[in-house]
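Thread: Newbie trying to understand structure tokens

Hi all, I'm a second-year student working on a class project, and my supervisor (Dr. K.) asked me to get a predicted structure for one chain before our next meeting. I've only ever worked with sequences, so writing a 3D structure as a token string is new to me. If someone could post the tokens and maybe explain what I'm looking at, I'd be very grateful. Here's the chain:
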Amino acid sequence: MVSDSPSSSDAPPAKSWPAGGLEVVATCPVCGEGERELAHAGVRDRVFACAPGEWNLYRCLACGSGFLDPRPTVATIGLAYASYFTHASAEGVGQPPRSAWRRYRVAQRNAYLNLNYGYRLTPAAARIPRWLSTERRQRWEKHCGYLRFAGPGARLLDIGCGNGRFLLQMRALGWDVSGVEPDAKSAAAAVAAGLKVRVGPLQTGLLPDAHFDAVTLNHVIEHLHDPIAVLRMALRSLKPGGALSVATPNFEAAGHRLFGPDWFPLDPPRHLVLFTPASLRRVLVRAGFEPEGTLRLRLDARGIFTHCVRLAAGGSHPSSKASLVSTSWLRTRWLARKADRQTRENPGLAEELVLLARRPAATAA
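---
Reply by user tm_fold:
Sure, no problem. This is what the structure looks like when written as tokens:
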């Protein structure tokens, strides 16, 4: 996913954000309250290193969400995406595997999705493995966006589809897929892969009403200037009873508590709003959805912690924790396993929030 700006720039990053290209955020974008505290001061773009300037991240004292203030305007946010991973091609995703071992694994995954999520995939193993690790089960569930198959011809929309990688996966699973993507480079990569993708800002009136069986926002909502407006757009585009799947970083994650300003998912200034379990549920309700009662558990601390340690080792933030700078590969794995154990006991500490919701059957959005 990229921002809700129509395009990105190839110009080299400047030392500071362009004059007039910032806006003040007087109240929390999630709950609208004004009481807040400074969470991190002077954080910079150390992930893609293409966005100039330093940023202050605040924590809302009412709902716990994090948000940048000031932040780039819709007109200038594209500067933060001059370099981004969704600019690369996703062609080949969803194609049949070549090796016998991978075909065997895919057959196991198909059997699992057929049994638990209503898919009709072939080839499928006669039975799923008797012992199935939590990590593999979660990987298979993530592959389908945690969505039950709505039947032949079911329509799926991915908002902020990037280069279309997820859409290619879902098309291979039997969905009729479409995407909307504001970044021209990412959208061009998706179109080149043979996908139906609309390019342009995420705005009201962009999508047909009551048209889709499912809508996904896969690490998109944190990039949005107005997440409630986009969620309401998604609500209108869903058929009554249709499903919404949202994945986003967790501002209350164990990794954030451990790494502070070196927590990889802060990713300023691309991540404008960071949610907690309670505030994500709150924003979905405000938009008119009926969220599920529980989060979908994702144990994924290892990959994120590896990036966090690299940021800490870079030492480019004055608050980087010296004790983590020399953290070894083995210690990183130990810290990640510890965080995953904590997450098993308390899903609210997960690095990633995954929550499903539905458009009420009788809503008149």
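A couple of things are worth pointing out once you decode it. The mean pLDDT is 89. Residues 132 and 224 are 37 Å apart (CA to CA). Feel free to ask follow-ups in this thread.
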